[in-house]
Amino acid sequence: MSPPLRLARWLRSSRTWIILGILAPLGMLALSALMLLELRHDAWEKAERSAGSLLQVVEGDIARNVEIIDLSLRAVVDNLKAPGLSTLSPELRQLLLFDRAVTAREMGVVLVLDETGNVVIDAGALPPRQLNNADRDYFQAHKRRSDLGLYVSRPVVSRLLGVPVVVVSRRIDKPDGSFGGIVLGSLKLSYFSRLFERVRLGPGSAINLYLRDGTRLMRHPAIEGDIGGSIVETPSYGHFRDRRSGHFRGASVRDGVDRYNAFTQVADLPLVLNVAVAIHEIEAEWRNKAVVIGLSVLILCGLTIALSVLFGGELRRSAAMQAELARLSRTDSLTGLANRRRFDEAFARASNAARRSSRPLTLLLIDADHFKRINDHHGHAVGDAVLRKLAGSLRAGAHRPEDLACRVGGEEFAILLPDTDLDGAVPVAERVHRAVSALSIPRAGIDAGSVTVSIGIASGLDGGEDTAERLYRRADAALYAAKKAGRNQTCTAPSAQQADVAPEEKLRLQTA
User: Looking at domain 191-282, what is its CATH homologous superfamily?
Assistant: First the structure.
């Protein structure tokens, strides 16, 4: 079969359309899944970009403000070394030491403490307010070490202002290098809270500022008791400790919410800024799209599969109907045997095959004896019953799959026996005679033996010059001879060569 014909046959198959109807939705589901995965990837990329941009903006603001404070502190340290400073009036000395940065809105106090921790210069008051901060951690840290540089303290409550602050300080050395005190500037924690409040965060998300030692300076949204707490024992601290910046995903120890955490160190300061975005917030929009797209695709795929199954079923029923119509068009409606059309097709194919293979082909022509009497005496209904029983007798005789029993017209029948010679055909005829002799229809008064048949047999086409037409004529002549000789018997026709020499003398009769 050529490829186009195979393709056409394949496309006409109901199974093909059912398979395609299932594979196509599965392909749609796979493509939809890939698309949803890509959308999810885009949502994560967007969240990462947003978190990175947020970190950059907030980190820049904090770094700039701390740098301004540090510049003021450096200026104080340097100016304290200026000769003659102690001879200046307190007002002039204050003007020389402090710039306008110390009056910024979020600034707390700017103080100079001596080596004992007492306030000796106060940027916000003349005379300086009386205070000793020798017990503060930042004071003790500078006293112990001369190489600290800029020191950022843990959150403390200002003793002068009464509000939470972070103290930024630097050491003051005496001319001999010994500890001479510190200069400090405090930054109100309200600065961080106002800065973080400007950041738009979704439910479950947060922004945090930590010291490098794991102390939390600020959290937004604020949670009571969080400020000043430590995260050293949490998995997050390991990420902050080991890298300057990065991101990771993890569940919060406090509330168990799974978050995407992006973090960075603030400039060269011992500060870590962290943006924690809830995973459900990152995927919320994607999840809504996934539900809509997923349900739509599932519904469409379900409809496609259902329609494909229905269409396949219709194709199957149509094919079955066409096959049945084809069978009926080649089947005798009364007897169920092959009809004349199928006989002609099968006879032509068998003739060609016998000629190509040099194998014999035998044809039996059978005619019911005195069938007109049965119709006239018993009626056509009984006659039809007799024909149906005759068809059963022929089936009993032609029992091989390749044998074909046919009704060629009226009370005439034929049996086609491929790969069979005369010796093999005679037993078939004998079986037919025996089966017919047992035929009876008691309700019509037809007893066994009342119905007989005459049979003509011809064999040939086994590589000789015989043709299908001549084979049929010889079988028909043998049938005529059987009837002429008294009916209820079989007559075999001579071979084609013998028939050419003496067509009448060569017919052989065999009584049933």
Answer: PAS domain (3.30.450.20)
